[in-house]
Structures are given as structure tokens and as C-alpha cells.
């Protein structure tokens, strides 16, 4: 049995003091949004409660699907690197970036340099190389292949779209194919939901069709994403058959009680079996209504003896978007 934990949209706070130069950019909008909205519901103590409960379950690996920071300032990026070190050894924690991690031009590369041990694929160089395309990457842990993809790009004001391009699609399909030949359970990590209609137009992923083609060509057993701050399950339709691959999101790990979005939580996937006989159960844990602790909220079986137990889109959402 291999246990994989999934958290997302950390949004480490509070915001640091910003210089006038930093505010003379898209960051001014994020700063105002934080002051008026996010800081009322995103709490560091919530994050600590959820992470402590997750770590008490002793997962074999932790997947983090983006938005570790808010405005991608240098101070935030360095603080996130320190936080990742506290979460666990880089060999046991895999990260992909989100749109907030590339909030302004240049931020993405700074974040990847600081977090490189957590985004480095097996066999990649030990030191960060800004000229090398590090996504997608693959890490093999026990019977599981973690495939990390990036949709993280700097966007104009009032936009939070992501981009999945042709080069990454081809490389992702190839990694998935190789992992399949090795008989591994393939988990794809990505920040934006690769499902049409799962996010508002100004927050959508550009390249959804390319992503589906990559999954259909290479094959995958599970897709994890963030971005929407919702507890959702979709099933990706590819040429391999309808309802083939579960696509799972989790609420923001810092979301406290009382907001419009679901309270913070994490997913715990229990994986065993082998090619054609995979068994996968997902337990979702979430912050209770009072915000004093974490409790089991839902249990779902995704695969039973290799058979995907899905249903057609659209699926339930714990809160309206």
C-alpha cells in the first residue's frame, strides 16, 4: 500500500511589506485583494492544523499543486522554500507552481530556483539551470510515478489563466508512456483544472485539448490540480474511453471557516495492486466548522481491481464557484 497526500493553494501569509517598486505592477491588485478579502479567510494557524493532521497519517509522499505564495515577492519565495523544508525531505515532497507563483514576469524562474529540490525530476541536474525546461518532470516513488507539469505563467491584470503548450504536451505523453511500460501508477500534477468549464474564463487553462491528448496518448491513472479552491472530482474523457481518468482538486490549505469557499483540507490516496488491477481509495479530510480541528469528510473508491469507478461530468462541488 502506497499513501499519497495532496494539498494545494497554500498562499502563505501574511504579506510582507512591499516597496513602491513592487506595488508599481500587477501586485497592487493582489495587495488590495488580500487586504479586502483573502486575509479574512486565509489563516496560518489553519494551515498548521491541516498539515499537522496530514503528517500524523505518515503519507509516503506529498503532492503540492501550486500557489505557495500570493504576490511572488522575493521574501515570499524564500519563506516558501523554508516552509517546504519543514514539510519534508525533497525526495518525499513534489511541487508544481501555480499562477500566483508567477505573479509578475521573472517570478516563476526565481521560485523554481528557490524550490528546485522539490521540482527536480529523477536524474536531473542537482543544480538549477535557468536555461533548461524542467517541466514536465518525473519522479518514481515505489509503485508510483509522479509527473509534474506547469501551467504557471505571468498574466496581465485581472487574469489568472494558465498555459499548457505543445512541447510540454509531447514530453508529458512520452514520460507517461515510459512510466506505463514500467508498470507504474501514473499521477499527473498540474495547477489549473484541465477540464473545460471548471474555472471561469479569466482563470481557465489554455491548452486543455492538448492536455487531454497527452493523457490519452501516454495514459494516466490520476490527475491532481488546484487553483479553484474547491473539493471536486471530474473524469477526463479521452480516446481511451469515457470517464477514464479521475481529476481531483482540494480546497486551499489555508482556508479558514466562514468563507464562500470550502474549509481547508487534504486528500489521502491509498494505492495498491498493479497494472490492470489497481485499487485506489481517496479519503478527504477537512477543517471542522469551528476551525478547531480536522476530521474525515468523505471516502471514495476510484479504482476497484483496475476498474475506474467514475461517472460523467459535471460532478458535485462542495461550494458554488
TrEMBL record:
Give UniProt keywords alphabetically: Hydrolase, Iron, Metal-binding
The UniProt record lists the Calcineurin-like phosphoesterase domain at 3-229
MF-aspect GO terms: hydrolase activity; metal ion binding
Task: Kindly give the InterPro entries that the UniProt entry links to this protein.
Answer: Calcineurin-like_PHP (IPR004843), CNP_phosphodiesterase-III (IPR050884), Metallo-depent_PP-like (IPR029052)
The record's listing under Pfam families reads: Metallophos (PF00149)
Stored Gene3D superfamilies: 3.60.21.10
Stated family:
Belongs to the cyclic nucleotide phosphodiesterase class-III family.
Protein name according to UniProt:
Metallophosphatase
Amino acid at each position: 500500500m502506497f499513501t499519497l497526500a495532496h494539498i494545494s493553494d497554500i498562499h502563505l501569509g501574511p504579506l510582507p511589506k512591499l516597496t513602491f517598486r513592487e506595488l508599481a505592477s500587477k501586485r497592487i491588485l493582489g495587495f488590495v485583494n488580500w487586504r479586502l478579502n483573502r486575509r479574512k479567510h486565509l489563516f496560518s494557524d489553519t494551515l498548521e492544523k491541516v498539515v499537522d493532521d496530514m503528517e500524523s497519517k505518515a503519507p509516503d509522499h506529498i503532492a503540492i499543486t501550486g500557489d505557495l505564495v500570493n504576490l511572488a515577492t522575493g521574501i515570499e519565495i524564500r519563506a516558501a522554500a523554508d516552509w517546504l523544508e519543514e514539510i519534508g525531505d525533497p525526495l518525499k515532497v513534489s511541487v508544481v507552481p501555480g499562477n500566483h507563483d508567477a505573479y509578475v514576469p521573472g517570478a516563476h524562474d526565481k521560485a523554481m530556483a528557490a524550490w528546485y529540490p522539490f521540482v527536480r525530476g529523477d536524474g536531473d541536474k542537482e543544480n538549477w539551470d535557468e536555461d533548461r525546461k524542467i517541466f514536465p518532470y518525473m519522479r518514481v516513488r515505489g509503485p508510483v510515478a509522479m509527473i509534474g507539469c506547469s501551467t504557471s505563467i505571468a498574466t496581465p491584470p485581472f487574469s489568472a489563466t494558465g498555459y499548457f503548450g505543445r512541447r510540454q504536451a509531447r514530453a508529458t505523453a512520452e514520460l507517461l508512456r515510459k512510466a506505463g511500460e514500467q508498470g507504474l501508477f501514473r499521477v499527473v500534477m498540474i495547477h489549473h483544472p484541465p477540464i473545460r468549464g471548471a474555472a471561469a474564463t479569466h482563470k481557465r487553462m489554455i491548452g486543455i485539448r492538448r492536455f487531454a491528448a497527452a493523457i490519452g496518448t501516454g495514459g494516466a491513472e490520476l490527475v491532481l490540480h488546484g487553483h479553484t479552491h474547491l473539493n471536486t472530482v471530474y473524469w477526463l474523457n479521452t480516446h481511451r474511453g469515457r470517464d477514464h481518468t479521475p481529476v481531483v482538486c482540494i480546497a486551499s490549505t489555508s482556508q479558514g471557516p466562514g468563507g464562500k469557499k470550502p474549509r481547508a483540507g487534504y486528500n489521502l490516496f491509498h494505492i495498491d495492486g498493479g497494472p490492470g488491477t489497481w485499487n485506489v481509495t481517496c479519503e478527504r479530510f477537512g477543517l471542522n466548522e469551528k476551525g478547531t480541528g480536522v476530521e474525515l469528510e468523505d471516502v471514495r473508491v476510484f479504482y476497484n481491481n483496475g476498474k475506474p469507478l467514475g461517472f460523467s461530468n459535471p460532478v458535485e462541488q462542495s461550494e458554488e464557484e
